[in-house]
Amino acid sequence: MSTDFVSTRLTGWGLTAPSVARVATVAPADVAACVKDSGVRGVIARGLGRSYGDAAQNSGGSVLRLAGSVSDVVVDPESATVTASAAVSLDELLKIIVPRGFFVPVTPGTRFVTVGGAIASDIHGKNHHADGSFGAHVRRLSLLLADGTVRELSPTDESDLFWATVGGMGLTGIILEATFAVLPIETSRCIVSTVRCRDLDELLSEMSVGDEDHRYSVSWVDLLARGRSFGRGVLWRGDHARVSDLAPKLAVDPLRYEPRHLASVPPIVPAPGLVNLLTSRTFNELWLRKEPRRKDGQIKSIPGYFHPLDSIGSWNRLYGPRGFIQYQFVVPFEREDALRRCIELVVESRLASPLVVLKRFGAANRAPLSFPMPGWTLTVDMPAGADGLSELCRRLDDVVLEAGGRHYLAKDAHTRAESIVRGYPRLSEWRRIRDSVDPDGIWQSDLSRRLALLG
Amino acid sequence: MQNAFGETQNIVVLGGMSEIGLAIARRLITPATKSVVLACRRPDAATTQIASLQREGVDVRAVAFDAADTDSHEAFVEQLRRDHGDPDVVILAFGQLGDQDRFDEDPATAVKVAHVNYTGAVSVSLHVAKQLRRQGHGRLIVLSSVAGERVRKANFVYGSTKAGLDGFAQGLSDSLEGSGARVLIVRPGFVHSAMTTGMKAAPFATTPDAVADVTVRGLKSGRRIVWAPGILRLVFAVLRHLPGPVWRRLPLG
Questions:
Q1: Is there a contact between B129 and B172 (Cβ–Cβ < 8 Å)?
Q2: Which of A214, A222, B52, B221 could form a disulfide with A237 if both were Cys (CB 3.0 to 4.6 A apart)?
């Protein structure tokens, strides 16, 4: 069967660095033929395009969207696992599994990511300290290789290639299907405790004790506040609520799950966008004030707790046509000084938007390119067109790398090949495994070219 | 590849001795930059030009390129790609001004200039465009001139080559729509440079650095045509419509 390719301009979620590729949606059975005809610019798979940078772009080459249906998802309550096409999104999955009493093992701040993307980026969430990243929950996956064959991988069989695929940014092959563990839940609610902290010292010390008592933990930092309020923020910790935690009204239908869509941002937001110092400071002030000083036992819905931004469609457009970057790094716990220095640099720059996340990661997994490692991870969104942003990012890069930290490939849109070499000491090991199954370099992306990931 | 800030990795200057070309390249060099290639007829004579662009971590080099030798252009572009990967920005900066009196005297010299400025530019641009199309991204900056906007008697051979080049570049820009590759046409006025030493400056004369500033701003904002200085756009909107007898009498050098 011949596949219809359409020349399409693609960007990541950050809307920066556009490039044109031949894009097609293909059924799993036709993928091998498309890969065979790919030509010198190669192939990359693309899910929902929620990587912020150029990970799912392949300028001049082919970009494949896998056709997969949620109706083929198999939930096995016995073993608490789900088998799904790589094209299925967490959004689609949650609608099926939450009413049946299960939750995805890991969710990022959006549920609009595919299973394939979740594995390829080895995504993490608020439960990283307790449960690790997505790859830790994958029991098996089928991977289409560069030669057109499909291989079954698991953490025990073909484990080198399995772990090279986890966090491998789609550069080992196309993930077709995966089986992964899901988490039994009694209710679709979370029980959340909140602590509002007046400065960075208080925030970091609150964060440093007590994570182990909760499955979920994450903080927000006001990266525009200066002086006495420098580093003020809010820490939320949560767990899945039990039926006994719910008010009688909610307990009637404890697994009710209805994510809502409030509104969408229109396609054209004129430059320089709506995110600026004034709007961001106002937002931060209101956001902080709405939170209680200290409160336990608040009941929140899954969308309200995990995916608040998903209720606004295309929120990335708020930054205007030049888009934005999401800078995310991790530095080891013992280098809290580097974390503080980075926060200082961002605060001084006045470039931070309100979207900021600070979290303590737990243990790393075996994947050579997996991002999380024990330490502090900070995520901050900034408008890409802002003056001085490039200089700020270079200075942050230096601090992060000097501290033995690294950057998240699924977010990166700015850094250099050297940063990846320094941040990921096992890069050459990953390349060796990758090259063994793709000697001709079929799998390529703008990310792999920009950062010379393939060597 | 370019990054989220529009910073580029591989920069090529066709006409590597051009002061404007070098000034643009200098502004495009960032920590993201890996290579700058100065393509010129005599690469061994480009040592000061190379030195002026040298930065830590950037491979700056001059390579042989003859705009007049159109048969060599395909291989030239292919070699560029092989040595450095995707060219992200290609600056077409070569061009000869010549001397109109000499052209009138010896038309063969006019043919040479026309061949370099127009035919050579068309040839290499098309080969570059082919590569940019294949790679699905990249920018071609074409240094046109207001001299082509309304050609004047004092340099009508040069002016006509720029008029032709400008029209070519506009059409090329349209044809690349949707390919991921884009063209930026730069229309400078009189530029104080080695090319114009000893000449009487025209009104609104500018410098290579000022032209480069305008060009880089145009690249960032995604413009298709920029004028340097910007006022010339208005000036030529008027000049273009002047009656012939008035136009001929204008003291434009």
A1: yes
A2: A214
